Structure formats: structure tokens, C-alpha cells
């Protein structure tokens, strides 16, 4: 069981290869976050051909090639951009640098696949919208807590089949283990990581929009705080937000860096989805005290009570769909507007929380 979510990179048991060797060539540029392993791994499992890797840090490149030895070492990102065989560049750069890199990727005529959060400012988002419109290229985002979690994918299928009727509320928890000694310096600099609602809150907001079938949402309330890490004054170790979707559905989520050491995985992520005809609960990574294996799905509706262990049963269709989308210029994996809207709401929630933040000292204002 993974103890650190920074290197969460599940491998699919149920694989679907959607293209042949050399038909969809990709590169990995900027290896600042361990999510790059899951991003590239998912694409390779679906048939992508990994040709290049580039990062200015040779140690990161060496570690990457231990898992993906087929990747050639590029001497610069320009070398990658100049290769006409490369159709998509995957990246997990420092959060504040993801948008500038994306602009360079799109300008080179390639699609871009970035780790979440894709932006740290609304200005970056605005520029990305303009560049996508200008180039016609994709700016896709790795919202891994839905896209790379079989229980979340299965929940979406149940909802689409009408198992719980119309979704009226989504509640999510996204606890993470901090493991501060293993984190890079930029992780503790607010300008670079963007804040907790911008960072891990992005997963929760994207899931709300998906499960509740919303195309937009208002941030009714948001809050961030540093409760227990004064040695990292720019870290927010707790965040929460309440959303109201444009179809009337409501959402609430809490994210934090308080996973206790006694938990065998990096975070007890859970989601509860309430519908007009039932509800679904996801225990994504562990079912505490009962089952160490994650991807446990609980369904209650008018027909009865059900429990499904879906680990290894569903697969991760996003990656194959993304490859097909890039080749055919379709939007089946995720629409561009959905990817951008989730990011936009994250940034609004983060800004609202910061502007209304109350600084507490010893419990008093």
C-alpha cells in the first residue's frame, strides 16, 4: 500500500490498447511531481509510445528511466518540441510553472497533458483559454482522484445508469499524508503551489462537476488554515468549501494534510453521492478496519443494499479515450471546458478563502 500520495501511480489490470506502436508518440517534460509516473504509465498502458524525457535535473531523469527505460534523454525541451513525431507532452512541473510550459507546448503544435492543479492564477487560465482557441490543441489535466481510481469510475457508471436517480449532493474528503521531509522546497511556497484548495481541492471540485452533471458552480463558502505547521508558515494544512451547481446540486469537501502515521495508505479518501433514489459511498484507498484494499463501492437504492469491490475490475478508460481524442480531435475523455471550469472554480475558491481568512493565534483573533 502506498504510504505517500505524491507517487500514487496505479497500474491497470484491465488494459485496453487503443493504438499501435508509433501511432501516438509522447514525451515527458518536467518531473517535479511524482504524478508524472501515473500520467505516463496510463498513456503507455493504453498504447502510447514514449520517446523522450527531459528535466534539467539528471537525477529525476535517471529515476524516471528506471521505470520507463524506453525513453530517450532529450537535452532540452526545445528538442522535444521540434520533434514532429511527438503528438503530446505530459508534464508534472512545479504548479506555478505548469501554465507557462503549457503555452510553449501548445505553441509548438502539440497537445498538453498536465498534472493538477493546472494553474495558480486566473490570469494563467485566461491565457490558456486564448492559446487553446488559437492553436486548436488540447490542455488536458490529470485529475487523478477520479480518472485513476476505479471506484470513482464505477460510481460514474452507476450514476449514468440511473442507479441513484438525479444527484443532488456530493460530499468528499481528501486527506493526505504530509511527509514533509520528502517534499521539495516549492511545496511550501504559496506562490508556487497555489494553496490547498487550488492543489488537492482540484480533485474534489472536478468530481463534483462530474458526478452532479454541473457545467458551472458558485463557491458559497471556502476556508483555508494552517492549524499545526508553524514551521511552514505558507502551508495550508486544512481547507474546505461549499459549492452550488448551476443545476441546483450542492457540494461540500474537506482536504487536509493530517493523515496519521498509523494509516497504511496515504489518505482515507471518501466520497458520498446522494441522489433522489439512493446514495453511493466510495472508500477509495482503504476501508478502515475492514479491508486494506481500496476501491470499495457501497450502493443503497430502492432495490436494496449493495457492496462492490471493484479493484482490477474497471480499468482506467480515460487514457485510451484521451489518445483517441488527440488522434481524432474529439472530446470523449473530458471536454476542454470541463477541465478549465474545474480549475476556474478551484482558483475562485482559493482566492475567496484567502481574502476572508482569519488569522488565529492561540485560539484568539
TrEMBL record:
SUPFAM superfamilies: Glyceraldehyde-3-phosphate dehydrogenase-like, C-terminal domain, NAD(P)-binding Rossmann-fold domains
InterPro entries membership: Gfo/Idh/MocA-like_OxRdtase_N, Gfo/Idh/MocA_oxidrdct_glycsds, GFO_IDH_MocA-like_dom, NAD(P)-bd_dom_sf
Protein's UniProt keywords contain Ubl conjugation: no
Gene3D superfamilies, alphabetized: Dihydrodipicolinate Reductase, domain 2 (3.30.360.10), NAD(P)-binding Rossmann-like Domain (3.40.50.720)
Keywords: Oxidoreductase
Residue span(s) of domain GFO/IDH/MocA-like oxidoreductase: 155-281
Residue span, Gfo/Idh/MocA-like oxidoreductase N-terminal domain: 47-143
Protein name, UniProt field: Dehydrogenase
Organism whose genome encodes this protein: Paenibacillus tundrae
